[in-house]
Automatic annotation (TrEMBL), chains A, B:
Alphabetical list of InterPro entries matching this protein: MTAN, Nucleoside_phosphorylase_d, Nucleoside_phosphorylase_sf
Higher taxonomy: Eukaryota, Viridiplantae, Streptophyta, Embryophyta, Tracheophyta
Domain Nucleoside phosphorylase: 27-311
Cross-referenced SUPFAM superfamilies: Purine and uridine phosphorylases
Annotated protein name in UniProt: 5'-methylthioadenosine/S-adenosylhomocysteine nucleosidase 1
GO molecular function annotation: methylthioadenosine nucleosidase activity
GO annotation, biological process: L-methionine salvage from methylthioadenosine; nucleoside metabolic process
Top-rank lineage group of the source organism: Eukaryota
Length: 322, 322
């Protein structure tokens, strides 16, 4: 990779040694153009067809000055073959990486729509500021050798038994109290856990990839934002395995990009804020795809209103004032 | 992004207008260092600690000249927090993107271990040359409105019913012949399919992301390689939903990077070959994690032998001779 236009190391040192410098450039990563275009209008940004990126990539960039901030909105654009927005983690991580390298922003904001969990207090139209992100579909901890009779439902001829994530977490964290485990067999259970499960647990933690968003206590207080954790996966639906990990992630909202944006941003040492607006209730009784389409316009309007308030709040402030 | 060191457009034109130019540079993307290091020795490559990549990324590069080829082996390296290899699609796509931008190779080879399906003829130790790649854990096509009684098992008070992918594909492709659908209700089925399923089907095809590897008929014939399709997902295990999509992908081998490497390579217009060695049988009776560890050393040796043969074959040849 050719050296980036700015000297990252120097700029980081500057930022750290002069904490009072106001935030001057904000990079938005927004997966769907439907979500981005009202903000492009609001901030009066112009589409850029420059050569920041390799020829042929579908990525879209809109930029301009809003108040004292240089704002860039980046979208992954439309898939060349299918014409749909390039949603998902691979595309979001590539776009984040390439645009941070090219533009060296002070701050990334990943804004977009998401599913919400009613059980955690989410309603359609809520906009969440995210405190933590993690993945829910990168599993390493799902296999355990079966001992006939030790767990309920494991009798039979199969030598191995596949358990779901919640059960493995339960075994790891609460095995001594689990009433379904025969206490006489606990030494055998623990031996299995140490030989098979523990080495995989480290990989599983890597897979889950839990990361914190930039803490912004004043922003939350001032704008009275709802705060929740975000879980990211590459599917619109949710399997029982996804649900178990989402539960372990303690997530209130579920999207398809956040944790991947966080991964790429951490690699390049740029702080991220996430704003996620709820289009559908995952633990409700309507299918996600249908509910999404019905609510999209109204929820995008709510998201854009919240984003504008956040940008107005950030304008002129230092990181320590957020 | 700053312009890449080479002029991509010019080099592509050169390549197309002079098809007889031999392949001169090969970039390996290899997820695990255990898989890569024997090849580093074999090709007598040297670890490079240069500044091709942004400061702080864990990516490893080994490079050197082997016969007439410039060879670079790239590994995503160890996760800073957990010390495990940065396996998976996000990391693989970022590494592919950044290293292609920096090194402008003629050809990418993604080599590594994989799970194999006995039902498709795979055995432990087999090395497959991959014809096609696709994802199996990026689903958009799993939700359909329930009509009581139209599908078996859908009676009851719930207004919506979640179907698995194989069932949706069946409905889309073979509904007229599906004996489980009441033929009198077919018009209603088709109406549901068109209003709910079809729009999601395009997104689902984007998610599946099926792509062809570079066709290499002479290589396959000369080295008598087994050829099969590869399916990629971010989990070590396989859920029933994964299994349904893997079946639809007609995959013989299953890994955690291939389709993501293909996505990034296609963005930057570089052809890819995939070599995948089978460490464990997914549809066998041993758990993947355990079987993987038992067979790893022997299978990596088989992979490295195959990779060496492939590189020896490529040396001095043009693309049209592969």
């Amino acid at each position: 990779m050719a050296p980036p236009p700015g000297d990252k190391t120097a700029s980081k040192v500057n930022q750290e040694s002069t904490p009072k410098r106001s935030i001057s450039s904000v990079l938005f990563v927004i997966a769907m153009q439907t979500e981005a275009l009202p903000l492009v209008d609001k901030f009066q940004l112009a589409e850029q067809s420059d050569s920041l990126f390799p020829e042929g990539v579908p990525w879209m960039r809109y930029s301009g000055k809003y108040k004292d901030l240089n704002i860039n909105i980046l979208c992954p654009g439309k898939d060349k073959k299918f014409g749909v927005d390039c949603v998902g983690t691979v595309s979001a991580s590539l776009l984040t990486y390439a645009s941070v390298q090219a533009l060296q922003p002070d701050l990334i904001i990943n804004a977009g729509t998401a599913g919400g969990f009613r059980a955690k207090g989410a309603s359609v139209g809520d906009v969440y500021l995210v405190s933590d992100v993690a993945f829910h579909d990168r599993r390493f901890l799902f296999l355990i050798r079966k001992i006939p009779g030790i767990f309920p439902g494991t009798e039979g001829p199969t030598a191995y038994h596949r358990l779901d994530a919640s059960y493995c977490y339960c075994l790891l964290n609460e095995a001594q109290d689990d009433i379904s485990v025969d206490q006489k067999l606990m030494p055998a259970v623990l031996e299995i856990l140490s030989s098979v499960i523990y080495p995989m647990q480290v990989l599983d933690l890597y897979g889950v990839g839990s990361r914190q968003a930039l803490p912004t206590p004043n922003l939350v207080k001032e704008l009275k934002l709802k705060v929740g954790k975000l879980s990211t996966g590459d599917s619109l639906d949710m399997t029982s395995q996804d649900a178990a990990v989402i539960l372990a992630n303690n997530a209130t909202v579920k999207d398809m990009e956040g944790a991947a944006v966080a991964y790429a941003a951490e690699l390049l040492k740029v702080p991220v804020i996430f704003l996620k607006a709820v289009t559908d209730i995952v633990d409700g009784d309507k299918p996600t795809s249908e509910e999404c389409l019905q609510n999209l316009a109204a929820v995008v309007a709510a998201l854009d209103k919240a984003v504008t308030k956040v940008v107005d709040f950030i304008n002129g402030k230092t990181f320590s004032e957020l």
